[in-house]
Every structure is written in structure tokens, then in C-alpha cells.
Structure prediction request, 234 residues.
Amino acid sequence: EVQLVESGGGLVQPGRSLRLSCAASGFTFDDYAMHWVRQAPGKGLEWVSGISWNSGSIGYADSVKGRFTISRDNAKNSLYLQMNSLRAEDTALYYCAKAFGYSTSCCVDGMDVWGQGTAVTVSS
Amino acid sequence: QSALTQPASVSGSPGQSITISCTGTSSDVGAYNYVSWYQQRPGKAPKLMIYEVYNRPSGVSNRFSGSRSGDTASLTISGLQAEDEADYYCSSYTSSSTLVFGTGTKVAVL
Prediction:
């Protein structure tokens, strides 16, 4: 079964850091680009970041550029999101998602497999 | 990276067809064949319904179809059913090598 399981969310104070992880199974992880997408409570989807299969192509939303870092470990079938200098507006459910196609670009394809998300709350 | 513009809500009766628009710019929707559509039911993760403007993933009903004219992409749901009630989002690749989602549309089946 194709599966993505996120972890690492929680309650954190503004200005602090958090690292999210996503464990992939059921598919050849290093064949596909991967994404992080977030959804604030009661709001729409917001793309956060994407990374190509070999980490050679990486993209970030302007809202997180310079604060968040995406990475992957293909040997461990895992995706990560290092989040620094967290703000209240980063509060959201963070989804890990697999790209649909085989593009070498990080951010071209749609996402056909999604995890259930890990919740991040930034509050003092 | 402004969000793509979608109507807040669209409604229809069972059996009818509805169309959801997704308006971007010549730097995203109008520039690339990388528009996708997602369905999200309450409390659930999004589901890919359309990729590369027109294409349906395996398992998605052929009642869902995608199109594009200029900087506006559209998702049409034919033969509307109660199970189609959900939020729908478009997304597009951009000239900044990033991805952007639409504002989302709530579909109601009357």
C-alpha cells in the first residue's frame, strides 16, 4: 500500500524551530519529487516547498523562503521540513505529498498521494 | 506568488453540470500545461482529480473533466452527485519554478 506518514508537529513558541518528517512506503521513493503543503484552520491549501527526486531542484513559497528548508534521504525513504523562526501564521496542518509524474523539476507535477498531515501550532 | 482565483462557491442540482474556474496569469496557468485539480472532503486529505490540464488519474470518474482558455483553467463536473460535495482546489506551476494553489471552491449539491 502506498503510504505517507508525517510526524514532528506540535506546539511551539514564536521564533523557535521544529522539524517535520514524512516516512514513505509502498512506492519507489527516489523516483519522485515530493512536496510539503499546509492548510491553516478553516483555510485553503498553501504550497510550502518541493524537492526533486535527487534534491537537485528545490522550490519554496515566498512566505517561508529563508526560514524553512526541505530535504530528503532516499536511503531512508524520508522527507523532511526544517522550520526555523516560526510565526503564528505558520500554524497549520502540514501535509507531505508525492508528485504524480517523473519530472526532474521539483515543482511541476500534481500530487497523487497525500499523508494525513501533522499539526503545527505556533503560540506563546 | 498570488493565489489563483476561484469562485468561493458553486452549486447545482443532482444530474446537472457545474464548472469551476481558476484564473491565473501568463506566468502560471497561461504558460504551462501543469494545472491540476484536487477534491477535498471535510477532515480528509486532498485527492488528485485532474493533472496536466485535461488528464484524469486512474480511478477518477469520467464525470470530471478539465480545460483551459488563456489564463483561466476550468473543472467541469457532469451528472452532479451528492458525493461530489466538497472543496475543490486548482494548482499551477509558475515561471518562478514554484507551485501555487487556487483560493478554493466549495461545491454544494442542492
The first strand of chain B starts at residue 9 and ends at 12. Chain B touches chain A through 28 residues (CB under 8 Å).
